[in-house]
Specification:
single chain; 173 residues; mainly alpha; two-stranded antiparallel ribbon; 3% strand
Length: 173
């Protein structure tokens, strides 16, 4: 399975929002407010994914050591508060739920759907475009036939969420 940073960067790449600019300051993907004591209140769910710098590569994320990003944490991102020789690698339902419901994925599913709809408005063209952007291949005829009713019933955004959560996108053979 791709590590957390690669999943995030692959999602940004599929949507066309990956910023490959090297160097510079880190980007805080959370809202920050003063806490009751020394530790501030960090809210990852309130970050505006349209804000400048939101498309920077994961290596440029600001890491708050004591309050990790729940999305990245669910995907086994390295714990910044500890030294470790290897990362934990797990497969859990929590990861699938994070990939379906996190604000990062929801917003980028919308962006991916907009990008695909700009390339062609009919359902088969949408499916082909999303496959090319996420999996770097064309869908088979059987896949098109199976997914067409889903796209027509659930819409382009939900189809993009499905593709960002599929095993072929998340695993390297």
């Amino acid at each position: 399975r791709l590590d957390a940073e690669c999943v995030r960067d692959a999602t940004l790449h599929a949507t066309g929002r990956l910023d490959l600019t090297m160097g510079g300051p880190s980007v805080q993907h959370f809202s920050l407010s003063p806490g009751a004591h020394v530790t501030p209140v960090v809210d990852y769910s309130k970050f505006d994914w349209n804000a400048p710098g939101s498309g920077r590569r994961s290596v440029y994320r600001f890491l708050f050591r004591t309050l990790p990003d729940p999305f990245m944490d669910a995907l086994d991102c390295a714990d910044a508060s500890q030294l470790t020789a290897t990362r934990n690698v797990s497969l859990s339902p929590l990861q699938a739920l994070a990939l379906l419901n996190d604000t990062f994925v929801l917003r980028h599913s919308e962006i991916l759907a907009q990008r695909a709809l700009a390339a062609g408005s009919d359902t088969k063209a949408l499916i082909t475009t999303v496959y090319r952007l996420t999996l770097s291949r064309d869908p088979t005829d059987a896949e098109k036939k199976e997914l067409t009713p889903y796209v027509e019933r659930r819409g382009a955004v939900n189809f993009c969420r499905l593709m960002l959560n599929c095993s072929e996108f998340l695993f390297v053979d």
